[in-house]
Amino acid sequence: MKFGAIASVFVLVLSLAPPAHTARAEDLKPEQITVARVPADMPRLYVMDPALPHMVDGRVYALDARNLSLKGMMESGFAGMMAAAPDKKRVYVAASFYERLTRGARTDVIQVYDDETLKVVDEIPVPTLRAQALP
After folding, report:
1. Could you give phi then psi for residue 6, rounded to 5 degrees?
2. Which of 20, 24, 97, 121 has the most CB atoms around its CB within 10 Å?
3. What percent of the chain stands above pLDDT 90?
4. What are the angstrom distances between the C-alpha of 6 and each of 16, 17, 19, 20?
5. 134, 79 in Cβ contact below 8 A?
6. pLDDT averaged over every residue in the chain
7. Does position 20 have pLDDT exceeding 60, yes or no?
8. How far is C-alpha 14 from the geometric centre of its chain's CA atoms?
9. What is the rounded (10 degree) CA torsion for 15, 18, 20, 21?
């Protein structure tokens, strides 16, 4: 038999065989979305993600430093930079946002995040002259 004939038989057999991994939509359970506080005593590791394929949507990930499990996420806008406060109560993120996502009027701010809820608690406008660099 030629290779083409063998390949054709192989494809025919595979197409007639039942799929090895079948799953029906009703078998899938929806994920439960939860919101939790980051434990105050948890050692944190912050990881900057400049999101190179879509830089206007950068992130800062908060990880548990003991096991590197993801505990939360903060936005950092375009080429954002961050610093954690020494008292571990606030995280400061310098971010730039554009009116039309990738163009238009630019707004630069320092976003102040609560270290336990990872929610913005303040936003400080700054001149559009701040440094922008990848971490």
Report:
1. -65, -45
2. 97
3. 42
4. 16, 17, 21, 22
5. yes
6. 85
7. no
8. 39
9. 110
Q: Is the per-residue pLDDT at 42 higher than 80?
A: yes
CA atoms within 13 A on the CB side of 39: 9
Q: And the tokens for 68?
A: 């590197």
Strand, helix or coil for residue 128? coil
Q: How far is CA 113 from the centre of its chain?
A: 16
Length of the chain measured in residues: 135
**3 state DSSP class of 131:** coil
Q: Span 16-35, mean pLDDT?
A: 71
Percent of the chain's residues with pLDDT above 70: 83
> pLDDT per residue over 81-135, tens digit each?
899 999 889 999 998 888 888 889 999 999 999 999 999 999 999 998 877 777 6
Query: Pick from 31, 30, 27, 70: which is nearest to 47 by CA?
Result: 70
Output the DSSP codes for 6-71: HHHHHHHHHHHSPPSS---GGGPPPPPP---PPPTTS-EEEEEE--GGGGGGEEEEEEETTT--EE
In 3D space, the residue among 122, 128, 114, 123 whose CA is nearest the CA of residue 44 turns out to be: 114
